[in-house]
Amino acid sequence: MAKKLLYLCGALQAAAAAIYLMMLNTNGPVTLLGYLTLAAGACSFVAGLWKSPAGRSWPLLLNGLSLATLGLLYSFFVRRYPVSLAAIALLVVLMTVSMGALAFVVSRTTRQWIFRLAAAAAFGFAIPFLSLAFRWITLQPGSRLDLIWLAAYFGFAAICLPALAGRVMRPRPA
């Protein structure tokens, strides 16, 4: 069941990536984006809670919590209150680091280089989002660079999470 939740989370993140790309040309459906990320966060969180032979997955719990929080921001706060790009970027940093930690744990148990590469890529996504959060990169009005990075990360997560799903719920080798 947890694998199915992670597959669903990946599909929801793919839809979120598509919406971010659509928002490059229009204002986009931010509320729909919020509902998608909230649902994806719930799927990831519940999959992390799921008791498997390997135990609970703390990186999945953190990923789900930060993704759901982003969904709550988009669904209920962005249209009513000003939400800073720094808050959104820091939540995405939590998502990238938790995804990287999950991929690193899987790479240690499976000894497959592709998961180490996925961990490095996930950790690499943290750099531009930290740069956006701490204003090391200043965005020009209308540049939409933040949307490009968000679409890229959510697209990466949509591919990476289902690939990790089969490995996360396997028992650890003795």
Describe this structure in words.
- With 174 residues, the chain is mainly alpha-helical.
- It has one domain.
- 76% of the residues lie in helices and 0% in strands.
- It is built from six helices and no strands.
- It has helices at residues 2-22, 30-49, 58-77, 85-110, 113-133, 145-168.
- Helix 1 packs antiparallel against helix 6.
- It is globular, with a radius of gyration of 16 Å.
- The model has no long low-confidence stretch (mean pLDDT 88).
SSE topology sketch:
Blueprint: H1 2-22, H2 30-49, H3 58-77, H4 85-110, H5 113-133, H6 145-168
- Proportion of residues in helical segments: over 70%
Mean pLDDT: 88
Give the N-terminus to C-terminus distance in angstroms.
24 Å
Q: How many separate structural domains?
A: 1
Report the structural category. Answer: mainly alpha
Poorly predicted sequence stretches spanning 5 or more consecutive residues? none
Given the C-alpha coordinates, what overall shape results? Answer: globular
Give the amount of beta strand, in percent. Answer: under 5%
Order of helices and strands: HHHHHH
Can you summarize the main beta sheet? none
What's the assembly state of these chains?
A: single chain
**Topology, number of strands:** 0
Q: What's the gyration radius in Å?
A: 16 Å
**Number of contiguous helices:** 6
